[in-house]
């Protein structure tokens, strides 16, 4: 157990819960009568509330982005390498807000929450959500915190899509948009991977049409397979080769279909096992559908430059060379559209072997560029 935290850590943090009683109209045509969002804050909001930064999480992320919940917590928040004193998102300068999205399974209202209309868990009855819905709910959280304008909205992957949507939906409420390892919409291949993951869950005998909690079970097998498929796409071929190669768990092959023989097999099964014990299956379905549905240019004749014509934020777009899930070409689509719309944009393509997960890893050049851009933000 550590007796002290690193000097560049935000230290002990306590999640907070915001309750909203006004109905939230959703893109799907339904609404939530009331809901709650769980969030954490790091740093101090200044007198003019001009130094606030919003962190948007990716598919399986949550509100715990930095610091520790207790002295015996082994690992800090999922983006601790980027948030803290002297780090790229410097909490000596910025007031940072990180939340668990609506529909999540880490405290915010979602499929595992009680439906006040029935007194039972929502399960499959929870409405389908979009990135736009999340941004509207986040705007209400900003109102509650007294933040009229974000100094920056920052996110990687699905989080980057939220940052982009913020700039489109609330152009007056965001000064800088940092879109990392993201895309203006999913490719057919990405939608296909998401569908395979969803089918793994939907066809699990323990799914029970999404009402598995009423049966006292979880679709563990489906969740494990979904996570294994997803995890393969987060790593590059080079990263998997360097980490595992064709290494064996034992000295000889067993020549059967059931043994865990290769180290990469063991790794994927561990990832699936761990994930199935902490993540809600209905939330996974919701998050992947939100990814699939994101396509802000669809409302403007598929013209992304026209879609971005009204944004007022300055942009920082970053991508990673070996990311094949959200390739640099997808980031350049955003950059090209912003330039066509005559907006301010900085772009960096980082040479990194780690694949899509690189945005979570403290790669020196990445942190240097990230921190360099954040230092330019006036508060």
Automatic annotation (TrEMBL):
HAMAP family: MetX_acyltransf. Coiled coil: none annotated. Pathway: Amino-acid biosynthesis; L-methionine biosynthesis via de novo pathway; O-succinyl-L-homoserine from L-homoserine: step 1/1. This is Homoserine O-succinyltransferase. It catalyses: L-homoserine + succinyl-CoA = O-succinyl-L-homoserine + CoA. It is found in: Cytoplasm. Its EC number is 2.3.1.46. Pfam families: Abhydrolase_1. Transfers a succinyl group from succinyl-CoA to L-homoserine, forming succinyl-L-homoserine. It comes from Aquipseudomonas campi. Homodimer. Substrate binds at residues 227, 357. Keywords: Acyltransferase, Amino-acid biosynthesis, Cytoplasm, Methionine biosynthesis, Transferase. The keyword Heme does not apply. Residues 51-360 form the AB hydrolase-1 domain.
